[in-house]
Amino acid sequence: MPKQYKNLINGEMVESGEWLDVVNPANEQVIGQVPACGKDDLDRAVAAARTAFKTWKNSSFEERQAACMAISATIKENADELFRLLTSEQGKPHDQAKGEIYGAAGLAAAQSTLKLDDVIVEDSDTRFHRTRRVPVGVVGGIVPWNFPIMMGIQKIVPALMSGCTIVLKPSPFTPLTTLRIAELIADKVPPGTVNIITGEDSLGPLITSHPDIDKITFTGSTATGKKIMEGASADLKRITLELGGNDASIVLPDADPKKVAEQLFWSSFTNAGQICVAAKRIYIHEDIYDELSQAIADYAKTVKVGDGSEQGTGVGPIQNKKQYERVLELIQDAKDNGYKFLTGGDKDPSGSGYYVPITILDNPPEDARIVAEEQFGPVMPLMKFSTEEEVIQRANNSDYGLAGAVWTGNPDKGVEIAEQLETGTVWINEYLHLSPFAPFGGHKQSGFGSEYGLDGLKEFTYAQVISVRKDNVPA
Ligand code: NAD
């Protein structure tokens, strides 16, 4: 009998009657069960959040910060248990799981310093005019399976810091570590402020359309994001959407292939490529294309694909069967079209576990599915370009606009190109760095609004303007 993990509602760990199996993607074994919640469970969680909101909305900055710091400390104190559990349900190698757990604890601590001060726009003889931020109310948080803890924390912490309460739904594929954290923080935050419930995808639309939820903060695919926007329109819920990406990296001819090959590899293959901001299209200048593509392929051959709990694994399995089949389909399409592979593509995966060999394509055409679509797997197309103008146009030729990167010996030139890219973040000579104090969000169909920093915090609030006429007191 697999271990059963309960939900957190109103400060208590509860069951719902029905259970969902959770599978380890490294071996397809069931490793846990979680409640399969429906409307009644959701109603209970929302009612708890609504009741808690009446008090929490008036909490002080210090009370909010103390709750978030307690979450941060709890995650850190239990990191050893948590990162192992995360690897077993998500698939990522132990060192990357450790990075996510400590990263989430650090993010909680950093974001608990964020404060939205009142803004005084007029203080004259006749008028005192002040803008304050008030919490929107009960938040519904919906999280994907690639970074379940990071994404959960980046919704819970700003909700609490703004004075909101939250009902969070992890992905049905990766709910275990989140529920273990729920158990650990249950007596460390006021009852009802943080509620965590699990269920199938069908629980998502119930959250989106719930009449007593005021805001949705969602991370996941663009397709689901569009459904959420539609569902939230019925009662004009506030929404923040962090969606998919097809990020381009541009390597200029002055970048030393020996210095960038390994970094480019990991910008694509960390978390088996299942990162919204992973480099999914790499454009290399023709002068260094042959040398750099060979250096990346040579490095790839040194990286072990396998069970994330085994020492030395660099790339784990794909997280779930549906995504595994989608990635294999994209590789098959590339084979069917006769595109050239530098690594991968030639061997079929066998045995249990959702493993895909590291797959690097050699200059496929721009309209290849593997280039035009978000792969979300250990697959990277390398493409040749000749001029800056051409590569900027190709990089921007996407409905997505999440992030991108420029690699160059001349950082000023990198910035010049970055300013012409239509994305929310552009890195120069680095990758995957997010500051807790800068807005993170997508342009175009990669998102709506932003998370992180004061911009992200503001999305959990309404502006309220209070205007006092000093020379017109009717008394
Ligand atoms: P998904 O959209 O399938 O699921 C995300 C969450 O939404 C899950 O909790 C799921 O149960 C829930 N859900 C599913 N259908 C729903 C509906 N109709 N209404 C409400 N909720 C619903 O995404 P995924 O496959 O879990 O994650 C992969 C995608 O997430 C990729 O496209 C990736 O780029 C994106 N992503 C984006 C970011 C970002 O910050 N921009 C970060 C991570 C992942």
Give the CATH H-level superfamily of the largest domain: Aldehyde Dehydrogenase, Chain A, domain 1
Give me the CATH architecture of the largest domain, please: 3-Layer(aba) Sandwich
Mean pLDDT: 97
Helix content: 25-40%
CATH fold topology of the largest domain: Aldehyde Dehydrogenase, Chain A, domain 1
Which cofactor or ligand species appear?
Answer: nicotinamide-adenine-dinucleotide
Strand order of the largest sheet: 16-17-18-13-12-19-20
Q: Which structural class matches the secondary elements?
A: alpha/beta
- The total count of strands amounts to 22
Q: Tally the structural domains.
A: 2
Characterize the main sheet.
7 strands, mixed
Strand fraction band? 15-25%
- Total number of helices: 15
Mind telling me the CATH class of the largest domain? Alpha Beta
First-to-last CA distance: 74 Å
C-alpha Rg (nearest Å): 23 Å
Describe this structure in words.
The chain is of the alpha/beta class. The chain has two domains: 257 residues, Aldehyde Dehydrogenase, Chain A, domain 1, CATH 3.40.605; 181 residues, Aldehyde Dehydrogenase, Chain A, domain 2, CATH 3.40.309.10. Helix content is 37%, strand content 23%. The chain is built from 15 helices and 22 strands. It has a seven-stranded mixed β-sheet, sandwiched between helices. A hairpin with a 2-residue loop joins strand 1 and strand 2. The chain is globular. The site of nicotinamide-adenine-dinucleotide has 28 residues, from helix 7 and helix 8.
Brief description of this entry?
This protein is α/β, with parallel strands linked by helices. Helices cover 37% and strands 23% of the residues.
